[in-house]
Protein: RNA-binding protein
Amino acid sequence: MNSKLYVGNLSFNTNEDALRSAFEQFGAITDVYIASDRETGRPRGFAFVTFATEEESKAAIEKMHGTQLDGREITVNEAKPKEASGGGRNFSSPNRRPGAFQDRGNSRY
Structure:
């Protein structure tokens, strides 16, 4: 287990101060990141909270998962590392499907 937690189902009004206030009772928080939409800047409804130790993060999961924060029942789990592929829409990938849009040539249909 690592010391980084995923916190989901957040209210769009939840800010970093509210997260720190809710989680600091479990130990030293080293980072809080609230995910936001790259185009609009609006919150996406989830965040990552990182503690100094795994023990602190375990205590936070046990006590905070399923509790209310800003009127929403939040999900608190161990954060999972990103997949190696990086995700996203990489249309120039050599692994793209044959017959994909880019392979249709000059055909209108």
Summary: The chain has a mean pLDDT of 87. The two ends are 50 Å apart (CA to CA). Helices lie at 16-23, 54-64.
